[in-house]
Amino acid sequence: TQAQGQTSSQPQTQASEQPQTQSAEQEENNWSENFSVEFGAEMAYGNSRSIVGTYEIRFSLSYGDTWDVNFTIEGSYGESFDTGNNKMKKDRNEHTMNGVLDRWFLKKLIAVSYNTTLTTNEFSNIYIRWSNGLAPKIRPLSEWWMELTISISPSVEYVKTYDLLTETTDWTIVYQIDMNINFDKNQTVTLTNTFSYTPQFIDYKKFRIHFETNFKVKFLTYFTISVGFTYDYSSFSLNDATPVKKSDYKISTKLGITLK
Q1: Distance CA 137, CA 108 (A)
Q2: Which H helix or E strand runs over 197?
Q3: 36 contacts 256 by C-beta, under 8 angstroms
């Protein structure tokens, strides 16, 4: 009788372990991540006139249809001509770090998004600019060939200038549209576009415009090559001590590697 009891308990134990194993596997399969590194060259005109080297590091992490985390560090470095002061500067320091956390609802139709951005740009007289915003986000179109996202983000922005080290803190509103176009279902050829309009909360005459488009081709499974264009416009200078042009234009090309 004891032998029969022991024998019958074994299938029950195995049966109870199977659901636990399956749930653990499903939990692991819900996570997906992506890491990419790109290096290239960039030609800029506006507050600087230069051809410099560029870098970009991206990491993204997703959990099913619920959470998205995106982290980016990018910048450029090289000898540049300062068109504002009409002289050659030793180097061009321009670096940006951005982090985005999205909590999605209704199968990635609506999200609450937190965005933080840290920027330094010597030629635009920005020693440091740190902005933080919390935004509602909606994705009205999500198909294999196109993804469209719209967000409106009240943000607080801290700025410290290069020349006088003056400090200001302002409230802004970031209106942003992201549109990604895929030319095939495997996403080997893509066109990404971002447009944002950022006025100050109190004085709408002080605003910034950012437009960026990037055409990317993936080849040999892990490698990418891309060509991009960026336009930045600021309707105001941070102070009158350093002349700063309102518009900046950049054309870039990059070679990268992507790991999943």
Answers
A1: 10
A2: strand 189-199
A3: yes
- d(C-alpha 126, C-alpha 105), whole Å: 37
> Distance (Å, rounded) from C-alpha 135 to C-alpha 219?
35
Q: Is the pTM of the predicted complex or chain greater than 0.70?
A: yes
- Amino acid at position 100, single letter: V
Alpha-carbon span 151 to 32, nearest angstrom: 24
Q: Is the dihedral of CA 130, 210, 202, 173 positive or negative?
A: negative
Q: Shortest CA distance to 100 belongs to which of 74, 66, 69, 130? A: 69
**Angle CA 78–84–85, to nearest 5:** 85
Tens place of pLDDT for every residue, the chain, 260 residues? 444 545 455 555 555 555 555 555 555 678 999 999 999 999 888 877 788 889 999 999 999 999 999 999 999 887 766 655 566 665 667 899 999 999 999 999 999 999 999 999 887 889 999 999 999 999 999 999 999 999 999 999 999 998 888 999 999 999 999 999 999 999 999 999 999 999 998 889 999 999 999 999 999 999 999 999 999 999 998 877 777 889 999 999 999 999 87
